[in-house]
């Protein structure tokens, strides 16, 4: 069973070893790590998979170079290991990315400092390419001369330029698809995954967890699921879920706004560039090529207490564009070139802060006066979600089995030519392939399919036409299709790009 077909009644009739609340990357990885170890996990997501914090990812799978510069060797080694894990298991969705930082002889951004850092990065990550395909290997970096830097990045700010630091990381070519493939893998190993099912009440007997009461968002049915372990991976809502199940926990997730911009502009370099305006303390922007366009981020702004929606204002977007233009002479990015805003909430160190939390939190409610078997997780990085999932499971289960035989990832799903659906002359075979794909992947709404089962939604200009044709292929009547198109259009508007539909 490696599909995500929805069958809430069948799931309610089964026994589960644990229930995971939340279908972002942390919930998905917890389901996968549990299922690969012979457990029977059930994942419940109240909306659609990966539609909140995971949606705003900058898509970089970090190898931890920044942690090495801070002498945080534990986080560095974890990041290197987890980056290799993604490259090994998801070579179809993750690939190496060359990164360049211009050096101007200030602070740590000096050729001598970066030369030492990159050498240490190479020496301390020697096993990074073990068992990787040859085209997924992470090469060593180095410091480039001024001439070499100019040749790679012609628009580089030249005043005071001393060279450039070149290193290699990894990037997700399609982060939405990657998350779905994680869930398909978990399902193939025995996990049950249900979107549009909201966990509403923790069921407790004699001080211990016995299950979850939930509501099916499709038909409104009340469902009872049995399990003695519940893991709260609800991301921005983790504090609220903790409050409903035990007690309010603001410290689980103090929200800050984060967003990335996709520009309909050729990238300034064939490699990713890390650039800053010349003022002291200026923010570092990371711009890299994405399907011939420029993907740039990440912007951080404070949020009010309890924020659960994330919509950057026009003023915030304009400020970000102005700062990026100050960092790269002649870049001349414009608001009308913004194709899509990918925004979400990330955990900060304090209320109203933009300083991101540096370490994940795994909270055992039972050890702190709550129900035995209830755990809450708040993660900080997409890259380390699998590692945090494994640590959570080791705390939740006294004896956690090792990964069993026959739990390799199934072949990636063949994707129907949805991009061709907007063209005239598409036939019945394509329509049938799209219907089967939608059923197998738990698609309820049009935006589930076009925004979160692939990258078809990157260009809002073609989205309405594609949605119209695909909706007709799915057999929806005019009233249903109009409602679905309205829903699909909402996140494509700049003012609403980060609001989860």
Overview of the molecule:
- There is one protein chain.
- With 501 residues, this protein is α/β, with parallel strands linked by helices.
- The protein has three domains: 8-54 and 176-246 and 365-396, FAD/NAD(P)-binding domain (3-Layer(bba) Sandwich); 63-171 and 254-348, 2-Layer Sandwich (D-Amino Acid Oxidase, Chain A, domain 2); 418-496, no CATH class.
- Helices cover 31% and strands 23% of the residues.
- The protein has 14 helices and 18 strands.
- Helix 2 runs parallel beside helix 7 (175-188), helix 2 crosses helix 10 (385-396) and helix 13 (460-473) runs antiparallel to helix 14 (478-489).
- The longest helix has 17 residues, at 73-89.
Q: Which tags fit this structure?
A:
alpha/beta; D-Amino Acid Oxidase, Chain A, domain 2; nine-stranded mixed beta sheet; globular
Q: Which helices and strands, and how do they pair?
A:
Elements: H1 8-12, E1 18-21, H2 25-36, E2 41-45, E3 60-61, H3 65-69, H4 73-89, E4 94-103, H5 111-123, E5 142-144, H6 146-152, E6 163-172, H7 175-188, E7 192-195, E8 197-205, E9 208-216, E10 222-226, E11 230-232, H8 238-245, E12 254-263, E13 272-276, E14 284-290, E15 293-302, H9 314-327, E16 338-348, E17 361-364, E18 374-378, H10 385-396, H11 428-440, H12 446-452, H13 460-473, H14 478-489
Parallel strand pairs: 1-2, 1-11, 2-7, 4-13, 11-18
Antiparallel strand pairs: 3-6, 4-6, 5-6, 8-9, 9-10, 12-15, 12-16, 13-14, 14-15, 17-18
Helix pairs in contact: 2-7, 2-10, 12-14, 13-14
């Amino acid at each position: 069973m490696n599909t995500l077909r929805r069958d809430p009644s069948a799931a309610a009739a089964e026994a589960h070893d644990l229930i995971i609340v939340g279908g972002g990357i942390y919930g998905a990885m917890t389901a996968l790590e549990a299922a690969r170890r012979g457990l029977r996990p059930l994942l419940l997501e109240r909306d659609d998979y990966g539609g909140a914090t995971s949606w705003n990812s900058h898509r970089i799978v970090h190898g931890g170079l920044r942690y090495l510069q801070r002498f945080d060797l534990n986080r560095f080694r974890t990041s290197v290991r987890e980056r290799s894990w993604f490259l090994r298991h998801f070579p179809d969705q993750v690939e190496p990315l060359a990164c360049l930082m211009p050096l101007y002889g200030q602070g740590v951004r000096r050729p001598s400092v970066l030369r030492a850092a990159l050498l240490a990065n190479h020496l301390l990550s020697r096993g990074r390419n073990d068992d990787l395909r040859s085209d997924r290997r992470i090469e060593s970096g180095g410091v480039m001369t001024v001439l070499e830097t100019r040749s790679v990045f012609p628009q580089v700010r030249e005043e005071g330029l001393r060279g450039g630091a070149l290193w290699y990381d990894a990037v997700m070519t399609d982060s939405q698809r990657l998350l779905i493939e994680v869930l398909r893998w978990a399902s193939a190993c025995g996990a049950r995954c249900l979107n549009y099912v909201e966990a509403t009440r923790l069921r407790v007997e004699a001080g211990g967890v016995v299950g979850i009461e939930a509501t099916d968002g499709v038909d409104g049915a009340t469902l009872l699921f049995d399990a003695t372990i519940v893991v709260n991976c609800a991301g921005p809502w983790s504090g609220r879920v903790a409050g409903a199940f035990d007690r309010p926990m603001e410290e689980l997730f103090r929200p800050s706004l984060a967003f990335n911009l996709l520009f309909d502009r050729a990238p300034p370099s064939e490699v990713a560039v890390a650039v800053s305006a010349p003022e002291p303390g200026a923010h570092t922007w990371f711009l890299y090529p994405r399907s011939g366009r420029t993907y740039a981020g990440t912007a951080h702004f404070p949020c009010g207490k309890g924020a659960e929606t994330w919509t950057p204002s026009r003023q915030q977007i304009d400020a970000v564009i102005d700062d990026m233009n100050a960092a790269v002479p002649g870049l001349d990015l414009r608001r009308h070139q913004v194709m899509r805003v990918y925004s979400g909430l990330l955990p900060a160190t304090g209320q109203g802060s933009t300083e991101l939390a540096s370490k994940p939190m795994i909270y055992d409610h039972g050890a702190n006066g709550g129900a035995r078997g209830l755990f809450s997780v708040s993660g900080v990085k997409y890259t380390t979600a699998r590692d945090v999932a494994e640590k959570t499971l080791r705390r939740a289960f006294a004896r956690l089995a090792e990964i069993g035989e026959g739990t390799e990832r199934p072949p990636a799903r063949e994707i129907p030519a949805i991009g061709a659906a907007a063209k005239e002359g598409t036939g019945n075979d394509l329509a049938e392939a799209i219907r089967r794909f939608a059923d197998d992947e738990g698609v309820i709404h049009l935006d589930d399919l076009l925004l979160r089962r692939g990258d078809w939604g990157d260009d809002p200009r073609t989205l309405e036409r594609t949605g119209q044709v695909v909706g007709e292929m799915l057999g929806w009547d005019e009233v249903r299709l109009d409602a679905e198109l309205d829903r699909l259009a909402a996140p494509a508007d700049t003012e609403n790009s980060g609001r989860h539909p």
